[in-house]
Protein 1
Amino acid sequence: MELYELTALELGAALKKGQTSPAEVLAAAQARIAAWQPRNNAFITLPPPAAPQGDSPLAGVPMALKDNICTKDVKTSCASMILGDFAPPYDATVVERLTAAGAVSMGKLNMDEFAMGSTSETSFYGPTRNPWDPDRVPGGSSGGAAAAVAAGEIWYAIGSDTGGSIRQPAAYCGVTGMKPTYGTVSRYGLIAYASSLDQMGPIARSAADCAAVLDLIQGKDPRDGTSLEGQYGTLLSSLTGDVKGLKVGIPADCFGDGLDEEVRRAVLSVAELLKSRGATVEEFSLPVMEYVVPTYYIIACAEASSNLSRFDGVKYGWRAAGYEDLTDLYQRTRTEGFGSEVKRRILLGSFVLSAGYYDAYYKKALQGKAVIKDIYDAAFRKYDVLLTPVSPSTAPKLGESLSDPLKMYLSDIYTVPLNLAGLPGISIPCGFDSKGLPIGAQLIGPALGDGTILNAAHAFQLETDFHKKIPTGKGGSVL
Amino acid sequence: MKITEEMVDYISVLSRLKPEPEEKAQLATELERIVSYMDVLNRLDTAGVEPLSHVFPIKNVMRPDLPCPSLPREGLLKNAPSEDPEAFLVPKAVE
């Protein structure tokens, strides 16, 4: 068995038992990255890895960080030209916590520019490709994270999820990805897209690996006022795989028109398996789905237009040449430094916040958010977890999505409501379609129900091996 | 909802962006299509619903009032496109 076939926890245990050495593990990761980087372009920056310090079940296990997470003195680009060679003067809280737990960071992962996109094609550093088929996208925006874990270059990654950016690429690449409850992971050092929706989380092979990572990174942080007090650190130890009596709700509204038939069948097979292990499964109605995408895009773009005003060519990064005065400096730097999807969202955000339209769009969306949250809260008075698809289809080909932004936004329908309601969600591999592409299922929990969905995902993974499949890299065209 | 090129100009100023004249018509069309889709929200009854900006009811988050070091000035200035040892440099803004 090759080291890259192990889960992160298995590799951590093998290191502790002396069955492999830190040098051997590092060499294995470097060889795998050298082989895959020319094919999938999952990394933006590959600095020399530092020796691990600190201890945890994942000590010494190579991992990597999405490139919107600040790393002290290591280039952090958000996959944008506007940040140039920005090297932050501090580490994000998650980086501090992982370093203290003995993590070995291999580098910074490719993504959609400023995490705005569903394909990882908008990166200034070139698109990431899906390791299952290089003609297809890995999903986004944490596409580099999902592609690198799927290809066995690293054993886990930290991504960020504002509207599905961990869960959807995990589904497209056949790995497990989790957005925890909003506020359980500090956002200090995450370059903000939409602060009220952004949350960091793990992408790994298995739910158990995700639990182990979350045990390291969750916690109250005085530097993030939205982080929640709570009992953290017991997710891994409470995984039993016992789902007897678990009440699983299936929202019929998430299995209607527009859903690929192969995806539907694979996702519903998760319900069957949980049922065979003692869960009860019931269909119900969640009558908000047509409102979630507009609500999400209004709020996300509004917050982005404010958050991204800090990129002005003055404090960090790149500055345009040939400006006449200060305003011209701002305008030229931003117009030349941002890509077209980022500019589109900034313009939309400025529009929905502008005088005359604020009430009709932004305020209306905040009311929509309240309605959506209430409807999910009501569902969780009846069910312990909800099961839905992650995305209406498997990974599209490169170039198919960007020509029609509205169509791309609509494909986020199953993932965005969790960000609006602050809920945890996990994407688990549940099959392959007839093209050989991975399919993901999403388990959703109530606020702070992170352990419940991890346990349901773990129960599924005890009896299936979709999450253990690794692409050979032989299919598709050569780059 | 109709988005005109004049509106594109106005929100571009608010956004500190300067699209090329030939881009404006296309931007207006794209934004109009997206904004018109967002109008489905008008069908959602939100009468009497309080706008929700934060999902959890946490308010007035305090931390202990303890002095702790700020980041060193040198580290904060080193990423600037133009700086001197004490400040970010920009073109003269006030005559």
Protein 2
Amino acid sequence: MTTTVTPYRSRLHPGRTGFAHLLRAEWTKFWTVRAWPLVLAVAVVITVLISQLGASGSTAGGGPEVTLGPDGTVVTDAFRFTHRPLTGDGSVTVRVTGLRSADGRSLEPWAKAGVIVKQNLDQGSPYAAVLATPGHGVRMQWNFTHDTAGGTGDLTTAPRWLRLTRTGDRLTGYESADGRGWSKIGTVGLAGLPRTVEAGLFLATPAHLVVHRAFGGTSERYGGGLVTGTYDHLGLKGTSAGARWTSTDVGGAAPNGPAPENGPPGSTQVSAAGAYTLTGRGDIAPDENGPDTVQMSFQGVFVGLLFLVALGALFVTGEYKRGLIRTTFTATPARVKVLAAKTTVIAVLTFAAGLLATALGFTLAQSRLRDNGFRPPEFPDLSLLDSPALRAVAGSAALLSLVAVLALALGVVLRNSAGAIATVVVLVVLPQILSFAFPLPAAQWLLRVTPAAAFAIQQGKTYYPQVAHNCLPESGCYPLAPWNGLAVLAGYAAAALLLAAWRLRRRDA
Amino acid sequence: MRWLHAEWTKLRTLPSTWWLLTATVVLTVAVAAAATSSLTSAVCASPAACHEDTVQLSLTGVRLSQAVCLVLGALSMGAEYGTGTIRTTLMAMPTRWRALAAKATALSLVTAAAGAVGILLSLATARLILPANGFEAPSLTDAPTLRAATGSVLVLTLVALLGLALATLLRDTAGALTLGLGVLYVVPLLAHLVASPVWQHRLERWAPMPAALSVQATRDLDRLPIGPWPGLGVLAAYAGVLCVGGAVALGTRDA
């Protein structure tokens, strides 16, 4: 036997429950409780102040001179170079027969041996190179930030033929296993390349990076790194003013090595049969060790979000506490609509306040950072209307708004401000604190799956795949890409809203 | 004694108390299990070369469960203001500071009991998990470990008292929690992000959470920003001063 229970429906004529009216009702509720606009204003002021304070605690300068690449990126450009000038079109070919460590430690996966065409011998000048690596196969790289993958052969087991051809200002990279059948890796245009360039073979290896991580303390150590590469069948086609191959240590000593390992310069030996043995250090790559001046301008967000979490939670739990929620639901029996209206009002208000706070905080913090030595050319001026600054400012505002929405939704689920506030703060802030303390894999996992991932939106640094780096939470690195990180928080907020809608429909008020 | 009994009855008969105490134990142990099982020697050459403070790792759960204790403390007073019971309470116990003292005593006792259970279970979990990965298991017969465990229980108790004091001062649960969570979590987070080493050091010494949690360290003690017991003293000072402030405010203001 089944019985059907007809749900209760009020016989009263429904009031004006258009969504616009609901929005207006919630909007009025917000502005007429004196404390709430006040909390919103305090959140903005505190965010700006703390951002300023954070920025004024940071100073730059006193470090070694930096090298800038053709597009203004800070780069490392130091390597052993055996070269001849090349005038007009031509090509350089070599067979790389081996690469081994010369300092008794294991080879870095991104150690590089190959051919290069470079504007001149100055650090940071434009270049294109075809190179073989122990861990990442054959690559074609140019102007530091660009990288194209070629074949996957392992240099330590089989020799590779590499060729770089210049036609005008276009450079084409080729590779071959036997020196007869060549396959093209890619063609790049280096605008403004002069008629005479330096072409030849090169050797480089990134410094060894040893991370020592224990509770409350992390130390990163760079060890010089020294490699030996062997080459033969070196050939240069085209017009050259120099008849002999000369060798140079571009950039002098290794940039990151501690003093004792800076010592010996690179060396080049040529056998009677034409086999070249180069020993050298350094790297040709973007330098990712500098501070992130974008991220440094948003420290106030951590404090500002506390206020917005409280606001989001109280906007609904306040109604439960005073029993106003029953009046609200009597006036508008469509409860999910009420939830939607509340969410919209809170989301819009916190986003607007957040945007004001982050835009103002960022601008002021940037000028403070500039006073403290973070100046061009190493730290170029960032425009608020360009990425990454625009993304970080708007993204931080979205983060603040989403956090408030998450608190509101949890407030509906828990009907209790204490639980909602504590849960959201713990979810958003605690993972970051734990990530400083946990072993690295666990720390990175935490920053992927918790709402704390959203802080990735504040990152201004680009992490290039052709540079090995440890994503250390204590140096401000988040493992997810900026927008993916924000999407994690949005996912939490959406899930909480769904749960809230379900609970609202199923439970009494 | 009768006052203590009254406060104990109030605390005991709130369902939220039991939920929060259970959460304290469960979260402490769950984080301990997660933290210790995440410790592998994959990132370093051998377990000894990892230089991990396994005791501190086993007690990481305190970083999460202290939030629960803060809620418990804030609710024990904030709920009275929220519902107006405070007026009845103060009518029954006209010496207001004694009412607060009774509340603080009852709260400390239950938090310390739940904290002790959580910490002991965490260490037991660590003893099960750590040796499987080749790491040394923490043992309570070891003096630093005993100090870390006792200190952790005290941290949880003091944080609950901090919540009670803030709620008494602000007469509001939400405000007390926001402020408390900010002091506990956001200040140390800023300490990590501030680039100036001087300020970083100052914040690590004088912010309640990083200072108090130095009581959990069992190795590299000379590298701590503040010693284990003085660190716990910093948190005790915060809680104590705020409790006295709360008692004064309670005595001089209307309810």
